[in-house]
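Appendix C: a fully annotated inverse folding record. The material below is reproduced so that readers can follow the format used throughout the book. The structure is listed first as tokens, followed by the designed sequence.
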């Protein structure tokens, strides 16, 4: 079914295909021009949504991250740093949405010059503690002062699906990347098999996930902003049962909350905190910024 008069937040096209109605009431639409999938209307999250309560599902106690969560976050971020080293062995990295500093810590340990940017005051405080050599900024691209063409790598992990103004975001962010620098992106892929199997219970259909990038949408971004897609692959994440149960409890859906909570309560704690790789429907994109002949 085609829906018109709802502007795409990326390309402003108004011809969209209805995909589904999500459990919290918004419709998921796919733009016929750029292939972006986006929810309409955007749910009202509130200006403090990404503050302390957002990290409750991580098990944060004050300003301390539980050891089992810290271990899984660092395991995942270490894999990303190793992938980045295929392109750069050293240099400057900006992480937008740096959360509590797991990537900053891993990248600093590998010798990169790292800057983190995040909305949450609590997250920035913990990130600075975890990665004292990093520069940690609280705010947004609009509120902080960053010099153009400052970074070899811009790292965006589980971030772009949250951005309410993606056209402006890509325009401003591309200015900060050096020529021959890369965007390294991980984000839910709505064309992953897990989405088709789970339907409305897909783990990534959270209220704060506003837009989704299938591969063709990323290709549109590349064409529009002078980038080249140099890598696309699906990834697995290290996780544990305890963390999955906490995420399901806070974000739902209720069917997953009940199932994972019951299983988590039945097993020994050390078993629920064991790490294992799991395909959760996320993709990795590496985009190169380079002058084109």
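Designed amino acids, in order:
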């Amino acid at each position: 079914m085609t829906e018109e008069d709802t502007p795409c937040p990326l390309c402003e096209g108004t011809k969209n295909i209805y995909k589904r109605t999500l459990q919290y009431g918004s419709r998921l639409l796919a733009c016929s021009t750029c292939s972006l999938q986006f929810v309409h209307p955007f749910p009202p999250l509130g200006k403090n949504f990404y503050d302390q309560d957002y990290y409750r599902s991580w098990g944060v106690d004050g300003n301390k991250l539980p050891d089992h969560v810290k271990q899984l976050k660092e395991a995942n971020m270490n894999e990303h740093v190793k992938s980045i080293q295929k392109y750069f062995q050293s240099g400057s990295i900006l992480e937008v949405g740096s959360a509590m500093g797991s990537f900053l810590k891993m990248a600093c340990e590998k010798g990169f010059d790292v800057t983190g940017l995040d909305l949450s005051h609590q997250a920035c405080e913990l990130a600075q503690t975890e990665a004292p050599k990093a520069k940690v900024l609280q705010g947004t691209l609009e509120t902080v002062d960053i010099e153009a063409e400052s970074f070899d790598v811009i790292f965006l992990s589980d971030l772009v699906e949250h951005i309410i103004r993606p056209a402006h975001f890509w325009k401003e962010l591309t200015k900060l990347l050096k020529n021959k620098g890369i965007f390294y992106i991980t984000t839910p892929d709505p064309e992953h098999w897990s989405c088709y199997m789970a339907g409305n219970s897909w783990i990534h259909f959270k209220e704060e996930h506003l837009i989704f990038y299938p591969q063709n949408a990323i290709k549109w971004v590349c064409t529009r902003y002078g980038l080249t897609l140099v890598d696309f692959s699906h990834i697995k994440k290290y996780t544990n049962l305890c963390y999955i149960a906490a995420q399901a409890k806070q974000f739902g859906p209720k069917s997953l909350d009940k199932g994972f909570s019951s299983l988590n309560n039945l097993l020994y704690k050390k078993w629920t905190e064991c790490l294992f790789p799991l395909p959760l429907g996320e993709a990795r994109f590496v985009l190169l910024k380079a002058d084109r002949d």
